[in-house]
Amino acid sequence: MSVRVQAGDFDPAEVLAGFGTGAGAVVTFTGQVRDLDGGGLLRMEIEHYPAMTEPAIAAMVAEARRRWSLSDVLVIHRFGALVPGERIMMVATAARHRAGAFAAAEFLMDYLKSRAPFWKKEITEAGATWVEGKDADEVALGRWG
Amino acid sequence: MSVRVQAGDFDPAEVLAGFGTGAGAVVTFTGQVRDLDGGGLLRMEIEHYPAMTEPAIAAMVAEARRRWSLSDVLVIHRFGALVPGERIMMVATAARHRAGAFAAAEFLMDYLKSRAPFWKKEITEAGATWVEGKDADEVALGRWG
Amino acid sequence: MIDILYFAWMRERIGLPKEQVETGAATVADLIDELIAREERYAVAFADLRAIRVAVDQVLVGFDAPIAKAREVAFFPPMTGG
Amino acid sequence: MIDILYFAWMRERIGLPKEQVETGAATVADLIDELIAREERYAVAFADLRAIRVAVDQVLVGFDAPIAKAREVAFFPPMTGG
Description:
Chain A has about 140 residues and is an alpha+beta fold.
């Protein structure tokens, strides 16, 4: 199990070296900074709550391990200023079969979206806007009971 | 869109270079040869139906693109003799949001499992056994209507 | 003339990966009946149709599919990809 | 003495990321009432509690959570990770 919260970029190949050895199924999710619909995103600034971030994510990972039999889990999340196209975060899960690996990765993403202490701000020429939590994200959480 | 059916191994970092540029969400699934529960798997031999394999997978990818808005899709599947730990196949999907990327990757996996013309044979000291299709795989297909 | 292909344990039971046959069969089911009538190994291989899948010209079909214009019929067990 | 932390637009509206306060508040809700009574900017920042989340000692809690033994209370808008 590995949780990393960092400002710098990461190399997926490097952080996944040796990940999921012996497992039948490995799922990864990578989140990337997407430009606004009409373009014009200069950068995204991600703020977090340092004392809480890693423990909160570790608790989510522990819950995922209780629900599914996982041989490996990795969560990396960046903070600071990122430009469009940059990687924001990655979740990786390894299990014997695909169902557990997929379910655990989706579970972790749903929790990271609205329960990990990160806040995103979008900076354009026109100014700065805090990204609002989506109702859809709360609905997504609901499916895990 | 890219579908590759090949005997040789592939480097995930290499095949994913430039994949999902501009997308918010990238999901990958990697299938690996897993040893038998009690150990002893010498190798897995994967047979396929060359004239049908790529068209069948391409049709699955086209159907996934009809159902979800995907900016990129990649399917790689190997055939031939593989030893435990080796990569068998990979599916990658890229979309604006995570829901579409996850759903499309799971859809493609479910179809590849029981509708792409591959057959696996497990070779041990004791002999060779054809892997049987699982009822659970047919059930998984059912959820896509 | 039609090409018949066999994969996985169908190939092993029939003893060859491919053969050409002269047939007037209208459907896959008719073709199977003709094959079963030919030799014991076909009867054995086609004993349980629930365990067999068929593709006509590389497309999965049911046993009632027509083959009058087909060039290639393939028989195999349920697929195990992924 | 208790540390109060603010993140995202809560931090911007309050005008600081952290402060120490002397309080006898029993719950988070009581603490918020005390803050609102202090200055207009607190009243503005805490105007709509539905848009605010709170963590006591780095654990998400409800507004009725006790803080008698807490060392750190953090206020912030709904999280947007991932």
